[in-house]
Design brief:
The chain is α+β, with helices and mostly antiparallel strands. The protein contains 23 helices and 30 strands. It is found in: Nucleus; Secreted, Extracellular exosome.
Length: 758
């Protein structure tokens, strides 16, 4: 389970941290202030501190912070290992509300003390259930500078492995009382395999407002949405453009860079970076904000890309001054002068100096702008290198914001693409539009007949193979539940769902046969799904809210509640809710299948007249008992004839128990194997897999292997694990979850109580 924390420093093979060309190049460019070069190089040779971020998505974030500070950090305060005082974790001064921390504790030290091992297990477990994210400090900056609000439509262009995406999702859910924020995140990655890492990261946050798609960011298609019965192009309020880069700013973590660094990497990536950034600003709404970021020091990948983008925008874009944002963050201004160097060490100061045989390697957009006035107006010093761009008007090559179906699509191989200019920008002019209008109308009618049929059926499948070739794993379709589906009525009745419940947003992943799982998306994502099935390759979307329970019909409903969707569903449920006290919650989470007699008399009274089946268990904090857990908890459970149990994944159980002060650490050392009876019960209970939960745990193990290989922010390295294989295994596991129903049904009937622990 420690895969997510592989980066807790130490254990690297010896690599000589020297690169003469690197030093020559950056000394000449003067990216480091005079007198600081030696300190700069010394810092690059130091190991990177491990950093973590407490996810601000839930009201539980404050609870976790309190637990960290008051319990774990206090225990470490006077701790000595091998005669040395352990260095305390420090909060990042510029990150809001003390929700990000860094530590120099290495894995070697973590193994030397039971208290440190306990702290490490806490970090790993909380990471697995999405309450803590292992993320580099610099990686946290771009999402913060996007300045996201819950109503924003957001595109994350190069999103895998997904720690920044997770930050964006958290920002959408700033108000936990709003189950469906109006905004959403569309997270894209070009690598099909890495998309599954993205799904795994996003799933930890249980949001109905995230969609993972698989496209080349430099040509990501324009999406359409329905606005009052009229089709319009979707423009994003916020775009994160964290492009593939040479990564020479990551030398402290990726030490291979020391021996592999050459200027060639930047020269090869510049064109792609510019195309991706150009595509981003094309899809940005007027007044919207796009953050362009790299983990590279090289101006060819940074200032040169932004300068070229600003120059061709002709005033449509502005580089924003964000120097007053994130107070406490140390930063240096972007540079305005630089030269271009080939890997053989040859320098060029201007494009006119480049010989013709080198003009494929070096491009004019790599050089600084010579016009001093233009250069001054660009304010390149505002990038550092995260550059925040504001779109003030449409792009000059697209002076009118494009309307849908203005252009006749052209066939290119298997993909349906629109006519693009050399730099990947959309070229739509008034003249073109007038000429093509008649043909477009005919084409539109043909396209609409297919799309409308698909919309009527509520199906958003993968694009047909004749339209777009699918690479990697072929996804199941997304099928929205028809309004009159008989499946929904018993669910509505059983849980007394509020009339405002948006049932149109329910979907399944199968067109035929029994619907085993029901998922939910926000109204806005439903709009995107239904209007773009022909052009968009969706890898995953929707949060699981109900799972079929094969014997459930005898209790009035064939579907039980799923824990991952309970915070989204809870505001709409008016029946089958049992309010429980903190002692009841402890029993539910530490005992496998407790008898009703173990619970408080109030709980027993509430359960007495309730039919068997799926239930909601709700804990509300008591402000008059400040020592008790002060954040609300909603759990899914099952009521049998004489017992009550919770259906909560292992790590989520551990999380809640820690928040309540219950000791759940199990030391690995033999001399510390004598736990108390309560601890044994906790561990035994957690080893028992609930219906469907075994699927998620095994799925996590499979994806963790991929995570460990890729590393947290190793921006764009190839993945060797087969995501197809992972997804196929996940599907097999998912099908096996039906077999797990038998133990639920056995428990609910209470035909054999010999296995009941307690």
């Amino acid at each position: 389970g420690g895969g997510a924390f592989q980066g807790w420093a130490g254990g690297y093979p010896e690599i000589v941290k020297e690169n003469e060309l690197f030093e020559r190049y950056y000394r000449e460019l003067g990216i480091v202030p005079a007198g600081e070069w030696d300190a700069f190089m010394a810092a690059l040779r130091e190991p990177l501190p491990a950093t973590l971020r407490i996810t601000g998505y839930r009201s539980h974030a404050k609870g976790i912070l309190h637990c960290l500070k008051e319990k774990y950090f206090k225990e470490l305060q006077d701790l000595e290992v091998d005669g040395q005082k352990v260095e305390m974790p420090q909060s990042l001064s510029w990150y809001p509300e003390e929700l990000a921390w860094h530590t120099n504790l290495s894995r070697k030290i973590l193994r030397k003390s039971p208290l440190l091992e306990k702290f490490h297990q806490f970090l790993v477990s909380e990471t697995e259930c999405g309450n803590i994210s292992r993320q580099e400090a610099v990686s946290m900056i771009p999402p913060l500078l996007l300045n996201v609000n819950p109503h924003h439509k957001i595109l994350d262009m190069c999103a895998a492995p997904g720690s920044k995406t997770a930050q964006l999702i958290e920002m959408l859910h700033a108000d936990m009382n709003v189950p469906f924020p109006k905004g959403f995140v569309i997270a894209n990655d070009v690598d099909n395999k890495r998309c599954y890492l993205l799904v795994h990261q996003a799933k930890r946050l249980n949001s109905p407002c995230i969609m993972v798609v698989n496209h080349d960011a430099s040509s990501i298609p324009n999406l359409q949405i329905d606005v009052d019965g009229r089709k319009e192009i979707l423009f994003y309020d916020r775009i994160l453009c964290d492009v593939p880069c040479s990564g020479d700013g990551t030398m402290r973590k990726n030490i291979d860079v020391w021996k592999k660094w050459t200027t060639q990497n930047s020269l090869q990536l510049h064109g792609l970076q510019l195309r991706i950034a150009t595509r981003g600003v094309e899809q940005l709404a007027e007044g919207g904000r796009m953050v362009y970021s790299t983990c590279s020091l090289n101006p060819i990948e940074n200032e040169a890309v932004i300068a070229s983008l600003l120059e061709k925008s002709q005033g449509a874009l502005e580089l924003a001054d964000v120097s007053s944002e994130l107070p406490g963050l140390k930063r240096m201004p972007g540079i305005t002068k630089w030269k271009v160097m080939l890997k053989d060490g040859q320098w060029f100061e201007e494009w006119k100096d480049v010989p013709s045989n080198r003009q494929t390697q070096i491009r004019p957009t790599m050089f600084p702008v010579k016009d001093e006035e233009k250069l001054k107006a660009m304010n390149l010093e505002r990038g550092f290198f995260v550059a925040v761009l504001i779109k003030k008007s449409p792009m000059p090559w697209n002076k009118r914001q494009p309307k849908v179906h203005q252009k006749l699509p052209q066939r290119t191989g298997d993909a349906e693409v629109t006519a693009n200019s050399d730099n990947g920008s959309e070229c739509v002019t008034e003249e073109q539009t007038l000429v093509e209008n008649e043909e477009s109308k005919k084409m539109q009618e043909l396209q609409n007949s297919d799309t409308e049929q698909s919309k009527k059926e509520g199906v958003c499948g993968p694009p047909p193979s004749k339209k777009m070739k699918l690479f990697g794993f072929k996804e199941d379709p997304f099928v929205f539940l028809p309004e009159d589906d008989p499946l929904f009525l018993p669910i509505q009745k059983f849980y007394a769902l509020d009339p405002s419940f948006p049932k149109m947003n329910l979907l399944t992943r199968t067109q035929e046969g029994k619907k085993r799982q029901l998922y939910m998306v926000s109204k806005e994502l439903r709009n995107v799904l239904l209007n773009n099935s022909e052009k968009m390759k969706v890898i995953n979307t929707g949060i699981k809210v109900w799972s079929r329970n094969s014997d459930g019909e005898q209790f009035g409903c064939a579907f039980r509640l799923a824990q991952e969707g309970i915070y989204t569903l809870y505001p709409f449920i008016h029946a089958r809710i049992i309010n429980v006290c903190i002692e009841d919650v402890k029993i539910l989470l530490t005992q496998e299948n407790p008898f009703l007699s173990k619970f408080s008399s109030e709980t027993q009274k509430k359960v007495k007249d309730m039919a068997m089946g799926s239930i909601v268990l709700k804990y509300d904090p008591d402000p008059e008992k400040p020592d008790d857990l002060q954040c609300p908890i909603v759990l899914c459970g099952w009521q049998g004839k004489t017992s009550l149990r919770a259906f909560v994944p292992k790590n989520e159980r551990l999380h809640y128990l820690r928040m309540m002060g219950v000791e759940v650490f199990k030391a690995k050392r033999k001399e510390e194997e004598s736990e108390s009876k309560t601890e044994e019960e906790v561990q035994r209970s957690l080893a028992q897999t609930e219906e469907g939960m075994d699927v998620e745990d095994k799925e996590h193990d499979l994806v963790t292997k991929m995570e460990a290989e890729i590393g947290e922010e190793s921006s764009h390295s190839p993945v060797e694990s087969s995501a197809m294989e992972v997804e196929n295994k996940m599907e097999d596991l998912d099908q096996s979850s039906d077999n797990a129903n038998s133990h639920v049904n056995q428990e609910s009937k209470d035909t054999d109580t010999s296995n009941v622990k307690g």
